[in-house]
Design goal:
7-stranded mixed β-sheet, 355 residues, homodimer, 44% helix, globular, alpha/beta, 4-stranded mixed β-sheet
């Protein structure tokens, strides 16, 4: 495994890659249904929830679409301060919902007071928030936003995209009163892409029953009926579920708190390195991601030339996302990445900068 | 690999399972984009088409939903003579379309004349047909139906589910004038589940541009824009695509025509065995599937007891689907299954029947 410092698809441990290679089973067999059920139940711990977890054969965006189609009849508020929050807004619009965008600068967190104001005024069925913006390395204060929404508009559902944070930074679904938290396999879970996981609250499920035009593939009410029989409406992505089953075991062996601490220490190391090298961090202090750091390219590094240099050492980082390309670059420190990998990367980057 | 004679997920060859275990790459890298593009282009041969092939991280039902959301603004005709055709109808209804069901007995093929009558009268934007009904082992005369629709209502799009036949039985998309043909990975392609492939005609793409509320995840217009840049809007299921790339090589090495002949010979063998053992075939002569045979359980076999017996020999067959459970049973002969496997199965079944 040569370390990639890109924010997903991340490197997958060899033994986890191998776990995919298990022989097939009929998906309606007791053998597979047991694996499916146990895996979904064990995954609850990642979300700090006792609520149901759905596993879909899709990317995380599939569950963004599921959230919109199942929990919004008409009006949704989308908090947007990054590319993936903007995508969720787009998903809502393209699914024919009346979606209002509450925008913030990309280098500013979503402000709980402004969200409270908006939900008080707007009669929204749900609000969407991205926990950890993969595009900017900014972590939004989901707990504070949720508190504000609960006070201002207690019936409004709180939908959270934790694609690049779940299992890498703590997010307590039940304690914070969140209604849906979704993630995908190829980020902090350090699995290949192709699976998405979504935990859903009881009141959100009740709401879904009343929402029309939920479709079929992402209809959570249909999924729930099958889930209660340890099954799924469509054929699940079995080899990825075998890998998930195996990887959950590894994650719980490390321990979630230890995992968060590992990520947090790597984030701190990268931040300090950047600042010591005359480059500032894109996200403001207090809102910096534990899983991916976006650095302002204040030394005018040619990112593709840097990456060519790094590739000679079997490493690579990510350029800035979309409008931030070349203006920033990103170093991911999630999944299997260890402090020693980060040390090696920063040493190589220093060598490049000295050239 | 112990042979399973169930109609998907089917057994996957060890070396194909292993192909999934390749290390990850950034999905927006040239390395991966080249694999993605080449694989989608090679897959055109499976469809006998020069049209674009989309690869989605979903089951086949996901592409049933894509077909409905992209090609139908309002009215669709669904030809139904089995459980998966019925599912497609349901997908249309749950996506808010005005869907009309043209029903046939499950042991009768879809009748081209009746389809022609219906499309002439109904002003439908599209008609849905399942090529090979996994639930009944009946193969519908798609070419004849397509001819009838072309004559009766030339503007009506022809959408075909070939989930359990593509790469196992010949279906010529371009020669027959089909507008979308979809399949999934875990049937005749003999891959793990989690990928769907859909080939789409030029006129269908033009139509999609005018259809509203296509959503995001299955929006084919969005996928097409990305496809032209060798990419996909959402993160693709990379390990499954590695396996697809590898498996296509194996399929073309065998040769498609040889593959069809192998399936057809196994179908004939199973049909003759059933009839020689006082059990008739569910599908009528002339409309029998090459990939899965459904046998009427006229000897009153206890299917689960039979399967327990077979499992002792590392084999298993499938019970009848839904309403046909215990009244029929199914023997699949698709993917990697060889005539010698079928011989072994039938020998074991005879041993069971003699008990």
């Amino acid at each position: 495994m040569s370390p990639m410092f890109v924010p997903g698809p991340v490197d997958v441990a060899d033994e986890v890659l191998q776990a995919q290679a298990r022989a097939m089973l009929p998906h309606r067999s007791k053998e597979f249904e047991t694996i499916y059920k146990d895996t979904a139940e064990r995954a609850q711990q990642l979300f700090y929830t006792k609520q149901r977890v759905f596993i879909t054969a899709s990317s995380g965006t599939g569950l963004q679409e599921a959230a919109i189609r199942n929990f919004v009849s008409k009006k949704v508020l989308c908090c947007v301060n990054g590319a993936f929050a903007d995508r969720w807004f787009e998903v809502a619009v393209y699914n024919g919902k009346e979606a209002d965008e509450l925008s913030f600068e990309w280098d500013e967190p979503v402000n709980p007071d402004r969200v409270a104001e908006a939900v008080k005024a707007g009669n929204y069925e749900a609000v969407t928030i991205v926990h950890n913006e993969t595009s900017t390395g900014l972590q939004n204060p989901v707990k504070e936003i949720a508190d504000a929404v609960h006070t201002a508009a207690p019936d409004t559902l709180i939908l959270v995209d934790a694609v690049s944070s779940l299992a890498g930074a703590k997010l307590e679904m039940d304690a914070w009163g969140l209604d849906m938290v979704l993630t995908s396999s190829q980020k902090c879970l350090a699995l290949p892409p192709g699976l998405a996981l979504g935990a859903v609250s009881e009141r959100a499920m009740k709401k879904a029953e009343k929402v029309e035009n939920r479709g079929w593939y992402f209809d959570l009410v249909r999924m729930e009926k099958h889930r209660l029989k340890d099954s799924s409406p469509a054929t699940p992505a079995m080899s990825l579920i075998f890998a998930l089953e195996y990887q959950l075991e590894r994650i719980f062996q490390e321990g979630l708190e230890n995992r968060f601490a590992r990520h947090s220490a790597m984030a701190k190391r990268v931040q300090e390195w950047a600042e010591a090298n005359d480059q500032s961090i894109y996200a403001p202090e207090g809102y910096r991601s534990q899983t991916v750091t976006t650095i302002r390219n204040e030394r005018g590094i040619d990112i593709s030339s840097l990456n060519n240099f790094l590739k000679e050492h079997d490493m690579r980082i990510a350029n800035g996302y979309g409008q931030l390309k070349n203006k920033t670059f990103r170093i991911a420190h999630m999944g299997e990445t260890q402090m020693s990998d980060i040390d090696e990367l920063l040493k190589a980057m220093e060598a490049y900068l000295k050239q």
